Amino acid sequence: MKNMTIHALHEKLVQRELTAVALTEAYLKHKDTVEPQIRAFLSDTREEALQTAAAVDAKIKAGKPVSELAGIPAAIKDNICIRGQQATCASRMLENFKAPYHATVIEKLAAQDYISLGKTNMDEFAMGSSTENSAFQVTHNPRHTDYVPGGSSGGSAAAVGAGECVWALGSDTGGSIRQPAAYCGVVGMKPTYGLVSRYGLIAYASSLDQIGPLTQDVTDCAIVLNAIAGYDEKDSTSIKREHNDYKTALVRDVKGMKIGIPDEFFGDGLSDGCRQALTEAIETYKSLGAEIVHVKMPHMKYGLAAYYIIAPAEASSNLARYDGVGFGLRVPGKNIVDMYEKTRSAGFGPEVRRRILLGTYVLSAGYYDAYYLRAMKVRTLVKRDYEEALRQCDVLLTPTAPGTAFKIGEHTADPLAMYLGDVCTVTLNLAGLPGISLPCGYQDGLPVGMQLIGKALAEETLLRVAYTFEQERPDLQQQSPVGEVTSA
């Protein structure tokens, strides 16, 4: 048996070839088998999952219509609020915190009878690229357990890649859905900023964060996006627009479309294996009738530096609320200042402390203009580069990451090396544009991710171009058999 998709399982459920309870039990059994190796989950909600599954079976038996997500086992990143459940952000600061309300995306999914098997591991407060920064455990790559799954949504990507769930939600601030999707060989999408409500997403950097799906294939990505997209009055950055059916974009045709290749993403830092896989992908698109256009994006080289000023600055502000007073961890002190210091020192891990200090520094008097203001000007230039490039083509094609997954512990002592792994993804968040990562090849047995970037609110175009490649190269979308996990 191989990892199944939402659309295939939905068909089996409505045809009554399978019950939701049996399906959920099968995934829970497999999760119990591989979780000691993968360590993707921080919590387990099997009782609630089986109750929901029984309710879905009762609806189907009664002849009532059910959504495509009804009865399908999923997982949710642990920075998305589910009422009554933990929302730790993989941090000691929120170790005992339970969400008092549903995030908007969870309200939407609950209305469709989705099934959550639990909350997934992540880099603490979404700050990291390997899921090694979790305060609780290190998650392992399902393709090779000596390697990282990427981050910060590494738990969600690994759970999908290992077949512990059918699909998952993650969040993306600088590549935190797309990069782990690439490392784990699954599909991951960062929607246009404002397309999916951020209400109930515990903030890292509010102008960059966005919730999105991690799935087995592009069709599933469209199904989940249909479920979570839409205007939300509780989110002031939410975009008010007519709801689209993203499944209508799943057309196997790119003839006449222009695919842009930004030369700046294909420089010396790109590994030979990734370059070869992406070159073959470009040739595949050419053979299908797409026109390949080379574009220049001269300010991309400044994007990573700008991101690592803007994101920590926003984090410094957002994480100020964790002071031991309102909620979360409190470490007693001699006075209130001592309590603040002890609480934040005990509650935050090294990477979170590093980014808070960096963000506070660039916002401080005397340095604001030199760093933060300059970074915001670079952000504008990056957005203009994307606008100009996308005037010349329908989508851009780039690597998702400059290499494949690296070994656990390889970069933990070198934060700059870790940050450089985000070089292909962060500029998309600065510009607020949609992007999707899907498998396009292998290097030494590890998946290579291809990133497609579109204009604002052009998710349909991205899905069409991604779907066409996936249908042309089904060999690249094969997942590991359920129950089989590779290790050294």
UniProtKB/TrEMBL annotation:
The keyword Protein biosynthesis applies. The active site is at residues 77, 152, 176. Its EC number is 6.3.5.7. Belongs to the amidase family. GatA subfamily. Residues 23-463 form the Amidase domain. It catalyses: L-glutamyl-tRNA(Gln) + L-glutamine + ATP + H2O = L-glutaminyl-tRNA(Gln) + L-glutamate + ADP + phosphate + H(+). It comes from the Bacteria. The keyword Oxidoreductase does not apply. This is Glutamyl-tRNA(Gln) amidotransferase subunit A. It is an enzyme of class 6 (ligase). Keywords: ATP-binding, Ligase, Nucleotide-binding, Protein biosynthesis. The gene is gatA. Allows the formation of correctly charged Gln-tRNA(Gln) through the transamidation of misacylated Glu-tRNA(Gln) in organisms which lack glutaminyl-tRNA synthetase. The reaction takes place in the presence of glutamine and ATP through an activated gamma-phospho-Glu-tRNA(Gln).
